[in-house]
Amino acid sequence: MCALEHFLGFVCPGCGLTRSVIALLSGHFAESVAWHPMGILIVLWAVNFVWFRKFKFSDASRKIVSHAVLLGFFVPWIIQFFI
Q1: Staple 73 to which of 9, 13, 57, 60, CB 3.0 to 4.6 Å?
Q2: Domain count of the chain?
Q3: 32 pLDDT exceeds 70?
Q4: Are 43 and 25 in contact (CB under 8 A)?
């Protein structure tokens, strides 16, 4: 339980992200997605950043990627309020 959930009663947009990454690194793909869908992208980003550094983004691509990441964090978070 994160501090935001403990004190305010609702989860933050990143809740479950660490568990998602750990599950993915342990080979549990479905469990990783269940914890937080962004865990997969975080692992892919880290692999690219640390080992490959192949992806060179233009300014337009960088905006698209940043908006996609924001949506990836906030859409599941908003959906939790309606489920």
Answers
A1: 13
A2: 1
A3: yes
A4: yes
